[in-house]
TrEMBL record:
The keyword Lipoprotein applies. This is Putative lipoprotein. Keywords: Lipoprotein, Signal. It comes from Luteococcus japonicus LSP_Lj1. Residues 1-20 form the signal peptide. InterPro entries: DUF305_CopM-like, Ferritin-like. It comes from the Bacteria. Residues 59-194 form the DUF305 domain.
Amino acid sequence: MTTRRTLLIGLALAASGLTACSGAPTDDPTPVIATPTESGPAAHISVSADPTAAHNEADVAFARALLRHDQETLDLVKLAPSRASSLEVKQLAAEIELQQGPQRSELERWLLNRSQSVDSSANVKQAGTAKKLAALDGAAFDKAFLTAMVAHHAQGLALAATEMADGTEPAAKALAASITTERKPQLERMRTLLAG
């Protein structure tokens, strides 16, 4: 685990009351997406850069789908601090929230800068999953949460693969590549935790 990734997780856990840790705010106003990974420091990708860059329908579909996907993820991970019993599950949820919260805001900006509509509402099925998780706690929550997140992360990786194949805007394709790098290790961690 890298020093930067440890710091990022620590900051997120502190915000949820899980540990005592603090970080200094940044003065850099440039919108970025932080994507800490198992293998190295966080990558920074600005999807708001150059709104005049050529993009196609696949890029727009990717941004809209990923925006909704990230909101659904945040609805799930925000339940973990108060309901999970496993420290590993709490740490994973904090890490994901720290990554996808800023990413969600940046995707909204990307769409608006290209005169595209924004809709981040969760679908009915995912809203039902969040409601079921909210009724659980302890080990039962951990298992149900990880099961839901395995399927959800796989969907995110599928969105990224489609964008890599069909998209044209370099920034959007770079985001898709970073998602693949970031979420594959997380998916394996979830599967390992489920198997344990």
